[in-house]
């Protein structure tokens, strides 16, 4: 019985960690691309890692700056949507990958995957908006 509870708890912890990773999908993708590009120039792992960290932070700072500077709500929404689109895809892929072994219904897989993608995308928007308001209110 305790092994079953441990497995359930571990699955929940992994899902929570994956959820938090999915929120920051855009900085991760930008950082990974920067790492690969700098590493291809034979700069080494340390310099590639620093470039990846800088690019990831710059992507978040750019979206926060656009959200803070832009007065037009459409421009702000577009900037937040650029940040949320990779999070949506990551949330969809996460749930789809977990549920594809549990059910055979394609409609159930897609509907639950899209719902999870929307939840993760909205969470990314809310998280970035709160981060931007906290950073720009000072």
Radius of gyration: 18 Å
Q: What is the percent of helical residues?
A: over 70%
- Which structural class do the helices and strands define? mainly alpha
Largest sheet: none
Spell the H/E element sequence.
HHHHH
Low-confidence stretches: none
Portion of residues in beta strands equals under 5%
Give the number of helices: 5
Shape: globular
Distance between the termini: 51 Å
Give the overall average pLDDT: 88
Tell me the number of structural domains.
1
Keywords: Membrane, Transmembrane, Transmembrane helix
Explain the layout of strands and helices:
Blueprint: H1 2-23, H2 25-40, H3 45-69, H4 73-99, H5 106-136
Helix pairs in contact: 1-4, 2-3, 2-4, 3-4, 3-5, 4-5
Transmembrane segments: 5-26, 46-70, 77-99, 111-131
Keywords: Membrane, Transmembrane, Transmembrane helix
